[in-house]
Amino acid sequence: MKKSILSLASAMLLAFSANAQKVEFEEYNLDNGMHVILHQDNSAPVVTVGVMYNVGSVDEIDGKTGMAHFYEHLLFTGTKNIERGKWSEIQSSRGGSGNANTNWDRTYYYGTFPSNELKLGLWMESERLLHPIVDQKAVDTQNEVVKEEKRQRMDNAPYGKIQYGMIYKHIFDKHNYGRPLIGYIEDLDNAKLEEFKAFYDKWYMPNNAVLVVAGDFEKKETKSLIKNYFGTIPARTTPKKVKIVEPERTEEKRVTEYDSNIQLPAIVLAYKTPSMRDREAKVLDVISTILSDGKSSRLQKKLVEDKKKALAVFSFGRPLVDYSVYTIGAIPLGETSLDDLIKEMDEEILKLQTELVSDEDLQKVRNKFENSYVAANSSVQGIASSLVTNYLLMGDTKRINTDIEIINSITKEEIREVAKKYLAKNRRVVIDYLPESQKK
């Protein structure tokens, strides 16, 4: 009885927490096709303005890679009305800050300001869309910035090819997800100024973008400002997204990848999995948490704590629109071989495929996702990002409030069936991730 009462109390607390954290928002379209999402929260005098463009590295063409990520940097150069190199200075002088990020499916720019600087934030984002500086000097400057970022974050980062998706070339034979997110530097070096401008003209338009404003503002005034700054920007014909079908893998593939920044090897099991929009993608997130999230997770407890065969273990999904990627891996300890780690990991995968997880494991997962949900939406900047991501990538803004319901509705039987379906040996790529010094 005590256990039942505690379970009921936990369920009630979870439901109360989820309801308490519900994010209210309004969305509409401008006449030029730009989608707008507003989340009003007057509890603190701060506001985030963000614009997400429906373009990422997946949309680049062969020989012209790197453009999407390059623009993430280039569009901080300045505009016709913002002096070259003064973008960040203007933001910081008015108490604000900003940044941008790119992935395979989208590019996102955002700034967070004191709420009395909302007008500035909206104006700067409209300037980015209307009057950016795209000249040879800006291209040459940012080309060096991109190269330095690649050196620091990827080339010189231990196990960086795993973290930044450089190993995806082994998973995707046809799809553009197999290309590096940052593109190929030689493509950027060879690109002409006209080609950089053509990429901008092709993708950067109001009807290929989503504007989000979250925080301390008044709706009537904000809608008027949005209309003034963005409503007059003319729409253009949006380019057609090319859907590339990646064939299903029918037999296991084993490859070797080398990294000059490591001394210890790793073994990686990588799988192509469903779109981030699919319920099964959420089930795989649950599986990932069971396998390696925290000291009590299965791989951590077995390989690191008990058997001491691994220095570290990991498993994570990379949510993407067309397909996602699911990765399981471990770094051996002592004389443990990579094949021994594969055997141990396969035992845990088989358990997921043949046995139902415990009530305790399932409750732990739900608690972790609840904590993550609360953390992600604990600031207006986080809420802005969640709203615009759910609209553009997930296809439904309301997912900001329903994802936690999906997690809580996942059953033990679903976990078993999804593990059986997507973590089959004939669907995976096994990557021996070795120090460069072992290269023959």
Automatic annotation (TrEMBL):
Please list the residue ranges annotated as the Peptidase M16 C-terminal domain: 192-368
Q: Where are the transmembrane segments?
A: none
Pfam families in UniProt: Peptidase_M16, Peptidase_M16_C
Which InterPro entries does this entry report, sorted A to Z?
A: Metalloenz_LuxS/M16, Pept_M16_N, Peptidase_M16, Peptidase_M16_C
Residue ranges of every copy of the Peptidase M16 N-terminal domain listed in the record: 36-183
Family matches, as PANTHER family = NARDILYSIN (PTHR43690), PROTEIN YHJJ (PTHR43690:SF17)
Keyword NAD annotated: no
Q: Which GO terms describe its biological process?
A: proteolysis
GO MF terms held by the record: metal ion binding; metallopeptidase activity
Q: Please report the name of this protein according to its UniProt entry.
A: Insulinase family protein
Q: Which residues form a coiled coil?
A: none
Q: Which domain of life is it from?
A: Bacteria
